[in-house]
Amino acid sequence: MTKVLDVQEKIKQALDRMGWSQRRFAEVLFYEITDDEADDSEEQIDKFYQKVKKSLQRPTTSTELLESYFVILTKQADYKKAHLVHETSARLDFVDQSILKAVSSAGKDLLEQMDLAEREAEEL
Question: Are both 94 and 75 inside the same structural domain?
Fold first, then answer.
């Protein structure tokens, strides 16, 4: 359940930094999630808002649902303007160590070549 609470808090903090209300967030979600043919009356949007509001409060809300909400939130221009960074992590434990070493070595070689090219350009 702590994962649910963490994602709920992450969404709430992002909304706060963006200056968005939960209602505005719900409206954006509504239009992102529903198809173009959906009834977008104020009544339907308000029902959806109530659902979103409850999902941000209940500890029994599906983590997957909250994560999908968060992904939509991170795609908004205001999210980027607020200089919020979406944390992503890559699992590397399934990658063979020799591959990781080769990639690391190639990266170092590339950086060395770039430094050398930069020094040569400065000499000209």
Answer: no
